[in-house]
Amino acid sequence: MENSEKKISLNTHLSLLKNIFKEKGYPEKFFKERIKYKFSYKNFIFEFEIPLVIKHDFQTFFLADYKLQENLIVSERGILALARVFFDPLPFFALITNFKKFILLNLYTNEKQIGNKELIPEYKFFQFYQPKEKKLFKIEIEKKILAIYLSGG
User: Fold this and answer.
1) What does the angle CA 62 – CA 64 – CA 68 come to, to the nearest 5 degrees?
2) Which of 7, 88, 102, 107 is deepest in the core (most CB within 10 A)?
3) Each residue of 44-97: pLDDT tens digit?
4) Residue 133: left (phi > 0), alpha (psi -120 to 50), or beta?
């Protein structure tokens, strides 16, 4: 029964997340739901999923993740590492939310905003959007950070 309740909860949160982006004008055909990934680092193998990816052609606009915990800040660095390890080109933004608070991360500049769903730019914002030059990073460090994040550390 617990797994069934958890699955219903995940589907409800995903539906809420999608509706927020639909209200902002994002076409549903850009939504990629519950994308599963495998990641190995040294002797560890991790399987995880990203609840919602908003992508058009080769460019990803958003990685959107919901967390049930109150403290969302602990997920920021892990999401950045995940984006850097798995996406090329880098997504423009990541969104982390528990639906009470929203954190919008610019994955190119590492700038963040904390607030409500109004932080999310309208889809038309991307019509002429050009991200700033991305900050340099070392992929091996990002992999190590991702492994720590995925292990709950």
Assistant:
1) 165
2) 107
3) 888 888 899 999 988 999 999 988 777 777 788 989 999 999 998 999 999 999
4) beta
User: Contact at 8 Å (CB) between 121 and 64?
Assistant: no
Give the model confidence (pLDDT) of 90-111 as tens digits: 999 999 999 999 999 999 998 9
Domains identified in the chain and CATH numbers:
2-150 (3.90.1570)
Q: How many CA atoms lie within 13 A of 114 on its CB side?
A: 7
At 135 the three-state DSSP class reads coil
Cα gap 120→116, rounded to integer Å: 8
